[in-house]
Amino acid sequence: MALKTILNKQTDFTGEFPVEYAKSGLWRFNDVSVDEYGYLADSSGLDRKIELVNYLGTTASLQSGQKGRQIRININNPATEKTYLKVANDGTFFSEMGERILVGGWMIPTTYSVGNTYCPILNTRYGPGQPIFYLSLFAGRPRIMLYNASGSLILDQTTTPPFSLINGGVYFICTVIEPNNKNAWIVLGDKTSGTSWVSPTYSFTGTLNPSCTADIIMGMHADAYWYAGRFDDWFFDMDSSLTVDDLIDYFNGSLLTNGGDMGGAVDALSVPGVVSLRETEGVYPTVGTLYTAPATCTLSGTGRVSVTSEYISGVTAVGPIETSTSDDLVHWSDWVAIALDGKLVSPNKAYIRFKVTLTTTDTSKTPRIIDIRLYDIPKSPYERIGFSRPVVLDSNGAWEAVLENAYNIVVTSEINGEDTLSFMIPYRDPKRGFIDSEKKIQIVDDVYKVRTLTDTKDSEGNLATEVYAEAEFYDLTFSVRKEEHKFDAETAEVSMAYALEGTEWSVGTVNVRTKRTWTSTEKNALSILRRVADLHGGDLVFDCPNRLVHLLTVYGTDSGALFAYKKNMKSIKRVVDTRSLVTRLYAIGSDGLTFADINGGKAYVEDYTYSSDIRISTLDCSTFTNPYQMKEYTEMRLAQYSKPNISYVLKAMDLSVLTGYEHEAWSLGDYVHVEDKDLGLSVTTRVIRREYNLQEPWNTVLELSTTLKNLGSSASQWDNVADSLEGTSMVTNNDIREMVPFNLLRNSRADDGMAYWVNSGFEVDGDNGVSGSTSFKAMGIANMTKSMAQTIYPANRSSYTLSAQIASENLEKLSSNSQVGIEVVIEYEDGTTEARFIDLY
To answer: Which residues form the Prophage endopeptidase tail N-terminal domain (predicted)?
Structure first.
């Protein structure tokens, strides 16, 4: 999969003129105000600041606009205000004109500007030095004037566009000059109607002034003629690569782009290259929609869209994501949402634009878009794995070479495990030169990266190269270092999103709905994802072509494929293994936590379905801080460990590669049926591992099993402590009674009823105290929140300890949104607050 397009620059989201095409000067007018000397910034990187002349006491001001701020001048009376803009020429502005000169930008004229006979826009006719060009309006029509070194006119052309310029209209105007070819054009666009126009080609004789040292003046000529209205995003570029067609494309592409619209709900200006909801006095709108500038598309295969974003689960969100495509930047396909797996649904055309919705349920918080990526997934020359060959990809993900002479090609893949490729190729094969370390190799839709190359020579002098490659997802091992992170009753999606943050991968389909409270101490994305699958259950699936990671309850389907001796099965071995069978399973959580208090005093769960023997082991649940979730996890693991590991290893042929046997297709994770009369076998089981021989599909090795093969996260240091834990809690009631040295809560034991507490639904229980005779209790009711709260004012400390004794009876969540826990709201000295929820179930 190749990265086709990435949108991560400010101009991608605002529609401003790209800085790379304004190398000689760029004035966006996004300043909050002029500096102390009356200047506004130059964004080209050359620091050619533009001076706002005669602005004090006038209507001149920086106003909110559609592409950030705009400069407004001479609104009341230009003849008395006399405000204009000036860029002082240091003598180098026009020293290297090159093949093409561009000068232009956006303007919003008033009736004064379009109604007068002469209205200067941008010129070099005022001040020291001979002029070079003059762009103006003549009775509301664009006019271009060019000069030679002596100051004589060599071109004076007024043009009539197909539409009239009006008061308040938003126009893009640019003049294009080719000094060597002696041609010039005017490009004009009307934002309101979306109409664009290019003047006829205007040819001139003579030589454009190569030694112009005149200043650039905007909005004034000869201290007698003035412009009234607004300017925005003005630029000039010497030796430009852009043509008039490129400028029309820019105009058409900028029409819908809205990240710079300061009156809109999204903001791509406050943090360059990042899009958020637009803040107004600390408040964000609840929803905003971003329209991006167009980007190149033209895919060689299928496309996939990925958005890198920052969000708070359940509070802020980015999506849905929609796309529209076009071949000419004028006629666009309908907006359509991308598929759930990120695949592009819009037709494959030359250009693509994106529509992304940002939302928040808390107006003090906003989601953020970091970048938008479009990937090109080239179509493989092979549709099925059987008899296919490795395809070498170049750095852009395109085909480079098909290795027809590769042999011993084996793909080894396992559910929740390895995914590797190995093959041999003659050393003197002409295509051996395409293979190098870290090169990408495509097998049908999967992509692998070459890790080792081993060149060998046997006793007969035969030279060969052995290639070993790993699936692309192995690179997640080298992700940005992950710090310790706490998850409070979060679903798997949240942990997976944290793991993939800062990578090119995204969370795909997750239908495992468990919630876990745990602390991640793993240091890379892949190890965190493996841990998530272990804690939540399910099959972790890496979709390399689409850069997606799925967590599925079960990966695969009931394929209906049958394996039988003398049909498609050459040999079979059945292994029934009870070495790891467990009937009583303990779990040790964070700081010695057990679930004995919620499990009838037992720190273990049992399952004697298969064996009546007491066979004990212990799970390392040191990342768990919630006994309910730890008990649920332990029960999930015991359901696997309490049965024998029954596996089948067979050599079989993939019949689906043969014409007429397509219905015998199967894949990793699928359920298949195995029959052998001699062994008395007739069982439906699952393909959990395969060593697929691409060149010889009849020599494929399958491993079939209905259970996991290992104990998972059992830790040896706990294996011998189960007996001492039986019937005990790691924290006794006596320990709790002594933990009250600095209690800031008043009436924490309910000795004085509900005094000092703000109560909603709790009551005092006089019969069940822990460190006293009373306690607080509440009976849960569907669709109702019950709470009690108290505000305390502690002294400044670096840390605080929160402790409580919690008991429950028949506790059950009625929905995924139910919560049981303690919420702490911290108010800091600056008045800001932070809420932290400690999940107890």
So the answer is: 390-471
CB 452 within 8 A of CB 468: yes
SS3 category, 374: strand
pLDDT of residue 224: 93
d(CA 169, CA 146): 27
- Tell me the mean pLDDT in the region 560-569: 66
Contact at 8 Å (CB) between 54 and 83? yes
In three-state form (DSSP H/G/I as H, E/B as E, the rest C), the secondary structure along 228-268 is CEEEEEEEEECCCCCCHHHHHHHHHHHCCCCCCCCCCCEEC
Q: How far apart are CA 346 and CA 342, in angstroms?
A: 12
Q: What share of the chain is helix, strand, coil (3-state, %, to 5)?
A: 10, 40, 50
Are 533 and 510 in contact by the 8 Å Cβ rule? The answer is: no
Measured between alpha carbons, how far is 165 from 26 in angstroms, rounded to an integer?
Answer: 24
Q: Are strands 68-73 and 229-237 parallel, antiparallel or unpaired?
A: antiparallel
- Torsions phi, psi of 673, nearest 5? -110, 135
Counting residues of the chain whose pLDDT is more than 90, the rounded percentage is 49
Q: How many CB atoms lie within 10 A of CB 76?
A: 10
Which of 6, 11, 110 is closest to 68 using CA atoms? 11
DSSP state letters, 43-90: SSSS---EEEES-TTSS-EEEEETTEEEEEE-SS-HHHH--EEEE---
DSSP state of 21: G
DSSP 428-496: T-GGGGG--TT-EEEETTEEEEEEEEEEEE-TT--EEEEEEEEEGGGGGGGSSPPPPEEEEEEEHHHHH
As a whole number of angstroms, the distance between CA 307 and CA 273 comes to 13
Q: Which residue has the tokens 């060689």?
A: 300
Distance CA 66, CA 396 (A): 36
Parallel/antiparallel/unpaired status of strands 548-552 and 506-510? parallel
* Tens-digit pLDDT profile for residues 244-263: 999 999 999 999 999 999 99
* Nearest partner of 533 among 656, 411, 713, 323, judged by Cα: 713
815: which 2 tokens?
């929905």
- Cα torsion at 564, 567, 568, 570 (round to 10°)? 80
Q: Measured in whole angstroms, how far is the alpha carbon of residue 482 from the centre of its chain?
A: 17
pLDDT score of 524 more than 80: yes
Residue 460 has pLDDT above 60, yes or no: yes
